[in-house]
Amino acid sequence: MSKYIINGGKPLSGEVSIRGAKNASFKQIIASLLSSKTTYLSNIPQISDVNITKSIAQSLGSIIIQTGPHSLEITTPDFTSSTVPHGTGEKSRSSFMFVAPLLARTGKAIIPSPGGDKLGARPLDRLLDCYDKMGIVTDITDDLMIFTATNIKPVHYTFQKPSHTVTEALIMTAVLLNGQTILDNSAMEPEIDDLIVMLNDMGAKIIRDQKDPKKIIIDGVPWLSGTTHQVISDRNETITFACAALATKGSVNILRCDPKIIKAFLDAIEKMGAKVFCGKDEVNISWVAPLKAIDIETSPEPGFMTDWQAIFSLILAQSVGVSTVIERIFPSRFQHIPNLNKMGVKTVFFNPKVDDPKTYYDFNPESDKPEYFHGVKIYGPTKLKATDFTISDLRAGANATLAALAAEGTSTINNVEFIERGYEKLADRLKALGADITYIKT
Fold first, then answer.
1. CA distances (Å), 240 to each of 16, 322, 396, 397, 398, in order?
2. pLDDT band for position 150 (50/70/90)?
3. In what order do the strands lie in the sheet with 295-297?
4. Alpha-carbon separation of residue 325 from 237, 271, 295, 376 (angstroms)
5. Is the CA virtual torsion 367, 368, 371, 377 positive or negative?
């Protein structure tokens, strides 16, 4: 169980460069398997989610060469198996995305039940519903999902509610079909558009409708070539370092990021009183005066991203007044709140009063439970107390790390393996900004 030991209370300052997006890189590794030709990917972060995906791909027959610290050469001339192995396959929710290349090139895919963070049920029913309409047969056992197909049909499919990862999985499934697939009410995240750019460079024919950007049109092609592609920057990393600056009353210049894809976040912190100065591919975030409370709701792109709210909650705890956070994407995503409570933050859970929960929330109603709360009030500002934590998911781990940096005294963060799923060398990069942080790997 690896850990961070943090002596907090010091403002962070300096410059930091953002790595490639976790939620784009591992999916683009999988997308490369749609072709037997060689693909070169750059700006790949050194994180465990990527390593797990590489391991799965290699077990299926991919030849992967590390051509640089953040660059991969991937060739999959033939699949040697149609089965994603247990162990690695169960560690990541990316495993079900291997269905697309496996079906396209072998006609069968056997996948362990997907893992990932414990945030509530993933909306795989949307994938399975579309797969059924495409003629893909799914057999689900206690620990396996078995997909078979002899003639996959293109479809016109409308999502009842948009899903980021399922949209990407369906794009990859449709790209080699004979005919046109249309996805309506699809997700609009920039990571999806980056995948589309990569696949089009490989020879695919995929567009977003200019009049209706939630409509994606895929004209199938008989084969794909390889390509050379640079993964977009990780907007969650950008948010993390921005919040690190604000939580410690510092100033950080964040390089190799795209301010346009974090507009909802930048608008929120400017409204609170933070100083924001944007360039084309950089943004400077500075604390200049006490921040004001604000109310936010998570929502699909282009709204306030669900991945941001755990880290952002720390900033709300440092702001003057009562802020509210409403989580609309996942039924259970307040695992970070007990950590803040341990440090002295006053919070009150509640459930918003809404006319129609089925249309207001983007998670499936059947994944909700009576004990789940979908809103929290956060009272600030709070002088944080140094505390020891044992974390259980990625974003709550990042929240605890930043909270420890803001608190005076020594805190310990246990189970930082969860943080390593999505952040490359986070301790080293925070240390370069002036943090007193020691990483102990066990």
1. 11, 22, 12, 11, 7
2. confident
3. 295-297, 321-326, 375-380, 346-350
4. 20, 16, 6, 5
5. positive
Q: What is the DSSP string of 314-326?
A: HHHHTSBEEEEEE
The string of pLDDT tens digits covering residues 67-86 is 999 999 999 999 999 999 98
The torsion angles phi and psi of 230, rounded to 5 degrees, stand at -105, 125
The CA-CA-CA angle for residues 194, 327, 368, to 5°, reads 105
* Residues with active-site annotation: 117
Q: What is the CA radius of gyration of the chain?
A: 22
User: How deeply is 371 buried, as exposed, middle or buried, from its count of CB atoms within 10 A (0-12, 13-18, 19+)?
Assistant: exposed
Of the chain, the percentage scoring pLDDT greater than 90 comes to 87
3-state secondary structure of 382: coil
> Could you give the 3-state DSSP secondary structure of residue 271?
helix
φ, ψ dihedrals at 299, nearest 5°:
-160, 165
The string of DSSP letters for 135-168 reads T-EEEE-SSEEEEE-SSPPP-EEE-SS--HHHHH
Domains of the chain, earliest start first = 3-19+234-440 (3.65.10.10), 22-230 (3.65.10.10)
State if pTM tops 0.70.
Answer: yes
CB 187 within 8 A of CB 164: yes
| 321-326/295-297 β-pairing | parallel
* Cβ-based neighbours of 142, under 8 Å, separated by 6 or more: none
